[in-house]
Specification:
This protein is α+β, with helices and mostly antiparallel strands. The chain folds into two domains: 31 residues; 112 residues, Immunoglobulin-like. Helix content is 20%, strand content 49%. Strands 3, 4, 6, 7 and 9 form a five-stranded mixed β-sheet that branches. β3 and β4 form a beta hairpin.
Length: 147
C-alpha cells in the first residue's frame, strides 16, 4: 500500500510542479506593461495652474484613447476641482509630455492630485478595461500624484 502511494507521489509531483511553473510563466508573459504617469511641473498661467505630466509607455500596446479622471485637492485635503484630461495617443515604447490647465486654480493652492480613474482606454482591438490598474504614479514636486 505504501509503495503505491510513494509511486503515485513520485509520478504526480513532477507533473503538478510542471503545470504550476507553466501557469506562472504564462501569467507573467500576459501581464500588461505598467504605464508611468509623473507630475513633473506646475506653473501659474494667469488665474490657472498649468500642469506638465510625463507619460511613459514601455510596452508594445499603442493606445489611441487614454483619458484620465483627475481630482484636485487643496493643501488641507479638500476637493477643489475635478477634470478630465485626454493624454492620447500613448504610443508604444515612448515617453511623452502632456500639458493641461487647471482652471481658476493657483498652483500653490494644490496639495495633491488623484488619478481617480482612466475613463477612456482604447487600443487597436477596441476599448480596454482596467487601465487604471496599469498606472504607476509619481511626482517630482511637493504636490503628490496618487491613484
Amino acid at each position: 500500500m505504501c509503495r503505491r502511494r510513494l509511486w503515485a507521489a513520485a509520478i504526480c509531483l513532477p507533473l503538478i510542479l510542471g503545470v504550476l511553473v507553466l501557469r506562472a510563466t504564462t501569467e507573467a508573459a500576459e501581464a500588461p506593461a505598467t504605464i508611468g504617469v509623473e507630475l513633473n511641473r506646475l506653473e501659474d498661467q494667469g488665474g490657472n495652474c498649468r500642469a506638465f505630466i510625463v507619460v511613459r509607455n514601455p510596452g508594445s500596446t499603442d493606445f489611441s484613447g487614454f483619458a484620465l479622471d483627475l481630482v484636485i485637492f487643496d493643501r488641507g485635503g479638500t476637493i477643489m476641482r475635478r477634470l478630465a484630461i485626454d493624454v492620447a495617443p500613448v504610443r508604444p515604447a515612448k515617453t511623452s509630455v502632456k500639458v493641461f490647465d487647471i482652471p481658476e486654480t493657483t498652483c500653490n493652492a494644490i496639495g495633491s492630485i488623484l488619478v481617480n480613474d482612466v475613463i477612456h482606454c482604447r487600443d487597436a482591438s477596441g476599448d480596454v478595461a482596467g487601465c487604471v490598474d496599469r498606472l504607476s504614479t509619481s511626482s517630482k514636486l511637493a504636490v503628490s500624484l496618487l491613484k
